[in-house]
Amino acid sequence: MLANHIRWLRGQLPALVEHGVISAESAERLRAHYGEPDASERKNYALIVCGVLGAALIGLGIILLFAHNWEHLSRPVRTVLAFVPLLIGQALTGFTLLRRRDSIPWREGSTIFLMAGIGAAIALIGQTYHIPGNMGAFLLTWMLLSVPLVYLAGATLPAVFYWIGLTAWAGYAQDAGGHAVLFWPLAAIVGPHLWLSAKNHPYGPRAILLGWTLALCLCVSTGITLEKALPGIWIAVYCALFSALYLLGNVAFHDVSRFWQRPLHAVGATGVAILSLILTFGEPWRDIGWHYYRHGSRFHTWAAVQDYVLVLGLLAVTVFLLVRLVRERRYGQIGFGLAGVVGLLTYCAAAQGNADVVGVTIFNVYLFVLSVVVITQGIRQSQLLTLNGGLLMLSALVVVRFFDADLSFTLRGIAFIVLGAGFLGANLLARRTGDVR
Amino acid sequence: MKQNLTLTIFAVLAVIQLAVPATMIIGRETTLQEGERYLFRTAPVDPYDPFRGRYVAIRLQPQTAPPVKGVTLGRDQTAYAVLTKDDEGFAAIERLSLSPPDTGDYIRVRASSWANNTEPRVDWPIDRYYMDENLAPEAERAYRRARWDDGAEAYVALRVRRGNAVIEELYIEDKPVAEYVRQQQSEE
């Protein structure tokens, strides 16, 4: 149980005893059962942060000392100095594995220092010998040499930077006219570490940090790695991605309610809302489908297969999780989860003809219905965050439609006043519902 | 037992981490020590590589080569530029070969042509010279000023060996670029 929860429970016990809800003996047994909240937990986080910051600052300081005199150093001296951060990092990591294996600050700090040292060595050698630029190859080499540290030291920060570095590599690889299909198997290398972290402590800092990194990197890397030979395929892929993230977050991590503790849920829901709003415009639906298939030299037909695999794979995950939610009768969470199905069906229908009319109409209806469902949930459960999220979605939809339509300032002013009044009224209603309960 | 295995794997990983930058060095250092020296005319421009520092982008001359008889090269096709020296001592391309030649100095390049018997465009594997980040933009400014006022020439000294080329120095008006820039700064 998290320390915060234990502290909350211990704080509630005196009032519960005073009001006769539980006896003093029961309160004492609860105190004994859960024990003192781990006071060292906060201290450990501070040590970890300080350890990592200290390692990073020392590394940067060493590099800056070199940089000051770099121009005056001979090539052999530069070559030797290029290896110094790497060797120090290896020594620290070796010492950690030998003597400080149980210390999280040592594991995280030493591996991050080593990871920086690897990049510095390759970069400094490249600079010393004026090696031609290939940023993609540099990033990929750096990441592949660093990733084993995740499992050797059980460290999470190298995994975080690995995903970020891999995402950057995918960008460079695609930009150079190549492809980044390998992103997916390479990213999956850190999958077992994420799985173990989530399994052991699903709401612990490791799982949360990895969850946020994964969710945000997927948002960026999915768009980068898509070959996009089939115009508009990104619509189906991103709808499926966000709905899969949302559903996974709800199915696997539903014991906490704080937004920041549920990265998959947060990114998935936000992604569905924003993407749906974008798809209520006609522009994304223009020139999509097989009739506009791209055959240029920058488009690799075999790499485009990845796009179709992504759509079908993400959709399969979505449907599987939707069925599970229905079986568990958790109907309130289906709305966002349907985005993947709606996205693919709409894309297929729109690609047949009149794409902008079909796509715009369906997503306007979908977003409207989703907003109303979320607002209703927020009122029923007295959850102000949910309620206001739904109101925000509905307001955004109404506002953009008003800007589309050719209406006078007076009418727009009246509409915004009505919207604002609706916000206030719904919040009051939700509070009153909570008070009645 | 588990700790021994972890340490063994880490030791292997450490060797690989050292070997990657080491292999970058070995071939190039051999080329610098034993390779033949060639001077290439160039025109420097100043961009920025965020990970690897400030550099002066250089575009080696010549940019085209004699056509390969009876062959139309594709786009960015691997070829080998066989080098010679012109009357002024600068490097020139004697011919392009589609396989490593048995004799002579050559550099592996990428060549493109669009029709038979037209001069293929050559992309050299050298495109940058790293400098102190305070000097790099000044180098570019000094070069442009000198070229406009005095017709000054910039050229790169490369060491060439078995298809590989490594930069030895970038010169402006026969002076190493860092020395040239400092001189310009002291004269201002």
Description:
The complex is a heterodimer of chains A (about 425) and B (about 190). Chain A has about 425 residues and is an all-alpha fold. Chain A is about 75% helix and about 0% strand. Chain A has 19 helices and no strands. The longest helix of chain A is centred in the first third of the chain and has 31 residues, at about 40-70. The mean pLDDT of chain A is about 85. The longest helix of chain B is centred in the N-terminal third of the chain and has 33 residues, at about 1-35. Helix content of chain B is about 30%, strand content about 35%. Chain B is flat. Chain B has about 190 residues and is of the alpha+beta class. The interface of A and B includes residues 71, 101, 125 and 133 of A.
Write the layout of secondary structure elements.
The complex is a heterodimer of chains A (437) and B (188).
Chain A (H helix, E strand, L loop, with lengths): L2 H16 L5 H11 L4 H31 L5 H25 L4 H25 L6 H12 L1 H5 L4 H19 L7 H5 L3 H10 L4 H21 L7 H20 L10 H16 L22 H27 L6 H4 L1 H12 L4 H26 L3 H21 L4 H28 L1
Helix pairs in contact in A: 1-2, 3-5, 4-5, 5-6, 6-8, 8-11, 10-11, 11-12, 11-13, 12-13, 12-14, 12-16, 16-17, 17-18, 17-19, 18-19
Chain B lengths: L1 H33 L1 E10 L2 E2 L3 E8 L16 E9 L5 E7 L8 E7 L8 E3 L4 E3 L5 H15 L3 E8 L2 E9 L2 E2 H11 L1
Antiparallel strand pairs in B: 1-3, 1-9, 2-3, 3-8, 4-5, 4-6, 6-7, 9-10, 10-11
